[in-house]
Amino acid sequence: MRGLSLLALLTVCSWSLTELSPIDSIEINGTAKDMVLSGEQLVIATDMGHIEIYNTQDNNKTNEISIPNVKDFMGDEIPARVLSTDTIGEKYLLLSDSGKGGYSDLYIYDNNLTQLLSAQDKVAIIKARFIDENHILLGFLSNEVALYDIKSKKEKYRVQLSESKFSDFALNEDKSQVVFACESGVLSLVDVQSGKLIRELKGQNVDNVYRVDFKNGIISGAGQDQRGSIYNAKSGKGEYIKGHFLIYSTALSPSASKVIFTMDEQNNLSLYNTMTKSKIALLKGQKSTLNVILFKNENIIYSASDDNTIMVWDLNK
C-alpha cells in the first residue's frame, strides 16, 4: 500500500507540471545567432549581415545596424553572418564571419561603423562582449581568451586555456570574472582583468559544453552528454541534471534560483529550481534548435533558435 501511495503521488506530481506557451513572439529578418539584453533593449545578431534592436516594453523594433557584405567561395557577395553582438551606452559590437579562411571581422558602431579587426588580422573569434567603454573580451576558436583595448587596437593579454575547441563564455554581473566552455567538458573560471585562471570546474560534463551562463555566483552548462551542469563558482562544487537529448542551451534567472535547460528533442525549455533540482515548468512552442535563452527578470524570458522567431515567455502566465 505504501508503494502504491508513493506511485500515486508521483503520478499526480507529473500531471501537475506546469506547461507554458509563449505570450508573444518577434519576427526577425534572418536566423538569430546571438542575443543580449541591456536595460529595455534586446539586441539580436542575425545571419543576414545586421543586428536588430527591440524595445522590450512593447517588443517593437527601434533600430537596425548593418555591416558590409562578404564574398563566398564563388566570389559572390552575400550577407555576413553576425556571430556575436553586445551593447554598452550608445555603442554596439558586431562580430562576424569575414568569409575568408574562417577569420573574423569585428566592428563597433557609435553613430558610425568602425572596423577594429579584419581577415588580414587572421583571428578566428567566436564571441565578443564589452567589459567597459574601452575594452572587449574575446573568445577564440582555439579556446584563448583576450582582452582587447579599443583605443590602442591592441590586446592587453591573450591566454590559452586549453587545447580543446572553444564553445562559449559567460560573464558575471560586474564583469570581473568569466567562465569559458569548450569541447572537453571542463569549464575555466578566469579573472577578466588579468586573464589568470582562477579554477577549473569539472566532473559534471564529460563532453562538449555548448552554452554556459553565470549569475549570482552560480554557473550552468548545457552539455552534449545530455547533462545540465550546475556549479558554485566560489567552491567549485557541482551537480548535474540528466536530460534525454543533447542540451544545446541554458540560462539562469538573475537570482540564480531558476535554471533552464533544453532537455529533449522537441526543443522544449525545462525550468528547474536550482537548489532542489526539481522541475518547475515546461515551456512549449519553440520550433527549432535553441541558440540563446535570456532572462529579462525572474519571470520574463526570451529565447532564440535556428529560425527567424524570437519567443517571449512569462512564468506567471
Question: Can you give a write-up of this model?
Answer:
By secondary structure, the protein is mostly beta strands. The chain contains one helix and 31 strands. The strands form eight sheets. Strands 1-28-27-26-25 form a five-stranded mixed sheet, with no helix packed on it. Strands 2-31-30-29 form a four-stranded antiparallel sheet, with no helix packed on it. A hairpin with a 3-residue loop joins strand 22 and strand 23 (227-232). The protein is globular. The model is unreliable at 1-15 (pLDDT under 50).
Key structural traits:
317 residues, mainly beta, 5-stranded mixed sheet, 4-stranded antiparallel sheet, 1 helix
> How many strand units?
31
Protein structure class: mainly beta
How many H/I helices?
1
- Gyration radius, in Å: 20 Å
How much of the residues is beta strand, in percent?
over 45%
Report the biggest beta sheet as strand number plus sense, adding barrel if it closes.
Answer: 5 strands, mixed
How would you state the average pLDDT, rounded? 94
Order of the strands making up the biggest sheet: 1-28-27-26-25
- The end-to-end distance, rounded to whole angstroms, is 37 Å
Give start-end ranges of low-pLDDT stretches. Answer: 1-15
Shape: globular
Proportion in helices: under 10%
